[in-house]
Amino acid sequence: MDLSLLWIIPALHLFAATSPAVWLSACPAVNRSAIPAVRPSASPAVRPSDTAHVVIVATTDLHGHATDWDYVANQPSPGGLTRVATIVDSLRARYPGQVVLVDAGDLIQGNPFATYYARVAPRDPNPVIEAMSLTGYDVATPGNHEFDWGLGVMRQAVAGAAFPYVSGNIHTLPGDTLLFQPYVVLNRQGVRIGVTGFTTPGAAVWNRDQLQGRLRLDRISVAAARVLRPLRRESDLVVALVHSGLAGPASYDTAGVGGENEAASLADLPFRPDLVVVGHSHREMRDSVLGEVHFVQPRPYGGSVSITHVDLVREDARWRPVRIRGELVSTARTIPSARLAQRLGPAHEAVLQWGDLVLGKAVVSPDPKPKSNMSEAGSRLAASLNAEAGAGR
Ligand SMILES: [Zn+2]
Questions:
Q1: Distance in Å, CA 378 to ligand 1 centroid
Q2: N or C end: fewer C-beta atoms under 10 angstroms in the chain?
Q3: Torsion-angle region of residue 248: left (phi > 0), alpha (psi -120 to 50) or beta?
């Protein structure tokens, strides 16, 4: 088989027709010497109908960053779903019917926007979830912080999503049945894309009060071994959303619980995924390969988007991935989606007003010479919100 075409195609995907200006502005610096030269192919052995290309787009650890606003500093922030949406829209225009958009968890906690709609003024749907639905997510898995507000808030938030949640290792008690379906199989151009998810069992430690007697989390490697076997059989391409760091020590006693950071263990299983979206550890990873499994991790808060291009060839009744290549695109200079910003406008304004209400205490500060523009009360609030935003992972 002449694979020269397959070698050339991925380079063209990124650089040949990136017409929207926003997409270009979103692209990181490119090492053009890394782009393979276009070589003429005298006799392409692979007919067009025998090849397919799908694009897996991923975020993780958004922590309430639906808008591109920092509610503590009261200024624009570099991430947010409104910026992610611009990149997703651009990719969907470039690759119609070929994009799958996924998230690896920690969504409804972590900034004042999330706090407001979980605790102060709950809405249905939760505006963070609404922003995800408007961005067009296809599937997501929960992070440990989804449970911070209690099971009721989490269930209600998920019920308002226009996309399914998957999880292979979270069980409800006492029945011990899976909280969500273990996986979905999506179809893009005839390619069956199986997506499953797993959450760090540390959730049971950090949220013991909310979860004890109600939920049980399996060790990730144990649950993955169970789920990946049927998923591999039903899918041409297998994607695992793993809200757990790649590897490393846990921040708790793992006896009887399971490791905190175990995403890499999926590479050792007899039925391995093709792609793992890593979350939880707030790191960034373009495309690391362990045992033929590709691991990617976008930056938290929508600071970057992971884009994985997958080329497949048809073999009998199945599609086989022949090339997988992950990229990271920073959202720092991406123009926020006007469509999403407009839809989230009232929700954004309400949080701003809530912030003004509380920070109004600064006006009556008895200190005649405040050291900063913010009063002590305002500073304390900002510090607590900052601490909350950075709390845990
Ligand atoms: Zn986490």
A1: 28
A2: N
A3: left
Confidence (pLDDT) at 135: 98
171 CA → ligand 1 middle, Å: 18
Tell me if 71 sits within 8 A of 63, measured CB to CB.
Answer: no
Are the beta carbons of 184 and 227 closer than 8 angstroms?
no
Q: How far is the CA of 201 from the centre of ligand 1 (A)?
A: 10
Q: Distance, CA 139 to ligand 1 centroid (Å)?
A: 17
pLDDT digits (tens, 9 = 90+) for 47-60: 557 999 999 999 99
* pLDDT tier, 233 (very low <50, low <70, confident <90, very high otherwise): very high
- In this prediction the pTM is 0.81
The CA 117 to ligand 1 mean position distance, Å, reads 19
Q: How far apart are CA 19 and CA 82, in angstroms?
A: 20
Ordered domains of the chain (ranges, CATH): 4-29+43-342 (3.60.21.10)
Percent of the chain with pLDDT over 70: 78
Contact residues for 281 (Cβ-Cβ < 8 A; gap 6+): 244, 245, 246, 248, 261, 297, 393
| Stretch among 23-27, 77-81, 92-96, 110-114 having the lowest mean pLDDT | 23-27
Phi and psi angles of residue 309, each rounded to the nearest 5 degrees, phi first: -90, 130
Report how far ligand 1's centroid is from the alpha carbon of 191 (Å).
31
Considering only CA atoms, which of 126, 149, 106 is closest in space to residue 241? Answer: 106
| Span from the CA of 345 to the centroid of ligand 1 (angstroms) | 28
